[in-house]
């Protein structure tokens, strides 16, 4: 016996629940998927409850905290502000889809490990997706740009310093993997900063010398 068509299933769901349902077909973490969801479903809820990937967290549900950030066709978006219906025909990546198929961590994930960017972890997936998208646009950020890159995401534990360091480290890892110098465009700045540190801490014995 032939299986039910999607239309039949949608009609049955309406019969059972009294709610209009939709079939949403998308590429989710590189795999084509179709989900049947009530038409009112938010993208964040569709990802967590229908696609069963719970890395995407829901914090404020107002577009403020960034915990729900996903990549929609490569661009970071707040999934709590989107309806699942708007994912139809789109390419969606969550934090679960960033690592390579062989398990190699995405540069941003690797950098979070190395820089202790991960704390309680609630906000982390949103930071990781945000930074991954940012580095596609700016592969060699300065410290100020790294701060700006994460300014739209909230970490309740205020662990921003390590996350900021992770942005810079992730950029290095990307360059290393591409066979480039890890210092990249920040080379001159890094050299200046090192120079400053060395000279700034070196004073004549007794501290009486004129260092100006
Ligand atoms: S849950 Fe979406 S921005 Fe906070
Ligand atoms: S690590 Fe938990 S809110 Fe930031």
Automatic annotation (TrEMBL):
Family annotation (Gene3D superfamilies): 3.10.20.30, [2Fe-2S]-binding domain
Domain 2Fe-2S ferredoxin-type: 22-98
Alphabetical keyword list: 2Fe-2S, Iron, Iron-sulfur, Metal-binding, Oxidoreductase
SUPFAM superfamilies named among the record's database cross-references: 2Fe-2S ferredoxin-like (SSF54292), CO dehydrogenase ISP C-domain like (SSF47741)
Pfam family, one: Fer2
Domain of life according to the entry: Bacteria
Cited InterPro entries: 2Fe-2S-bd, 2Fe-2S-bd_dom_sf, 2Fe-2S_ferredoxin-like_sf, 2Fe-2S_ferredoxin-type, 2Fe2S_fd_BS, Beta-grasp_dom_sf, Diverse_Oxidoreductases
UniProt signal peptide: none
PROSITE patterns cross-referenced by the UniProt entry: 2FE2S_FER_1, 2FE2S_FER_2
Name under which the protein is recorded: (2Fe-2S)-binding protein
Native species: Saxibacter everestensis
């Amino acid at each position: 016996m032939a299986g039910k068509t999607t239309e039949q299933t949608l009609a049955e769901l309406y019969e059972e629940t009294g709610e209009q349902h939709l079939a949403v077909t998308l590429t989710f973490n590189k795999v084509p998927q179709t989900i049947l969801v009530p038409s009112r479903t938010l993208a964040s809820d569709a990802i967590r409850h229908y696609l069963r990937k719970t890395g995407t967290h829901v914090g404020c549900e107002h577009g403020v905290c960034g915990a729900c950030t996903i990549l929609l066709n490569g661009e970071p978006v707040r999934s709590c502000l989107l309806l699942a219906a708007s994912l139809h025909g789109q390419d969606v990546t969550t934090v679960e889809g960033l690592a390579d198929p062989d398990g190699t961590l995405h540069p941003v994930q690797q950098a979070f490990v190395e820089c202790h960017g991960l704390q309680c972890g609630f906000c982390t997936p949103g930071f990781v997706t945000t930074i991954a998208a940012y580095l596609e646009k700016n592969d060699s950020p300065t410290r100020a740009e790294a701060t700006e890159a994460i300014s739209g995401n909230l970490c309740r534990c205020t662990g921003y310093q390590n996350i900021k360091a992770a942005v810079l480290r992730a950029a290095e890892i990307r360059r290393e993997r591409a066979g480039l110098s890890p210092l990249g465009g920040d080379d001159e700045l890094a050299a200046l900063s090192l120079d400053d540190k060395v000279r700034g801490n070196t004073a004549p014995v007794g501290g009486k010398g004129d260092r100006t």
